[in-house]
Amino acid sequence: GIGCILPPQELEKEDYIIVSHTSFGFTLYGIAVLVVIGVLWNTFNLITTMFQQWKAGGVQTVGLIISTISLGNVFLHLSTFGIVATMWGGMLCWDALPMFFCAMLYVWLSSSCLSFWSIAWLSVLYCVKVVNFTSELFAKIKTNISPIINVALAVTFLNSCVMFAPFFSLNYRNESYVTPVTKNTTCVIKTPLFPTWINLNLYVLVFICYLAPLPVMVMVPSSIRLVVHLCKHTLQMRKNKTDVQSADSYLLVCKLTVALVGVYITTLTTISLFYVSKLYGSDISINSLLLGYSFYCIASGVLLTISNKTLREKLWALFCGTKASNASSKSLSGETGAA
């Protein structure tokens, strides 16, 4: 029918539009599936861990870290999808920047910070609990590591809420307009800017360092120290052929810790490549940013479930319809995160 009405050049244009809409539909569907999986998985971890904390009658550090990572991942996944969806909808073409968009940016950065730093503190907790230190100072820290990590999590949450508050002051200014590059541009995309009283370069430098390099500086050394200790301990136990099951449990902790850190590093690399390519004028799709965060949220949620005995048993009971074993009712304080 289209071929009878339109000339050949118009037919090609119409076919291109149909293919573009079909491709966009598949992309949107695939992204929506990833978001649903990530949100549901991390919500399961969050609810199960909080219920276990309540059942145990107190706040345990391992459970608190799992809860903060899961909570951060839920908001991170939803806010990332919301930002991408609003950009698809042309919100940056509006005359005034909606406060809703500023709120999503705030939640996006705050939840990223909370999740990233929680993984760093989890790595520190495992390192201090497992590795033996000869120094008296480290021995005292090891004795009080749980309260220290609890305070660190509280400070991280507070910093995450306060540091990104200036994003609520984003707005358009006259110099924020971008000239259209083609005649067919339907709107002029505008760039939100901070008020003039904010030192943009200094502020961006501070929150980027707090968001990426600092967690890496905490996470990587503690993870490496943990891996070295656990590998030596595992080899020694296998050499003596004693307590092989315990050796396998130590090896599981080692693998999962490395995997969790690897997920964070991979996500950080993906995000960095996206922004660097944008600085050099590349037309890379913003979908790559959403896919990077989707990978992080889903992978970290799955690793947390595998590493925690209670979460594994609850998930097994949920899918298999059987009751979890009585061991799942033990306090989270009795776990090192695996075994």
Q: Note the overall shape.
A: globular
Low-confidence runs of at least 5 consecutive residues: 1-20, 175-183, 324-339
What is the radius of gyration?
Answer: 24 Å
**Number of E-state strands:** 0
- CATH architecture title: Up-down Bundle
Helix content: over 70%
CATH fold label: Rhopdopsin 7-helix transmembrane proteins
Q: Give the N-terminus to C-terminus distance in angstroms.
A: 65 Å
Q: What's the level 1 CATH class?
A: Mainly Alpha
Question: How large is the count of helical segments?
Answer: 11
Succession of helices and strands = HHHHHHHHHHH
- Please state the average pLDDT score: 77
**Major sheet size, sense and barrel closure:** none
How many structural domains does the protein architecture include?
Answer: 1
Strand content: under 5%
User: What is the structural class?
Assistant: mainly alpha
- Give the full name of the CATH homologous superfamily: Rhodopsin 7-helix transmembrane proteins
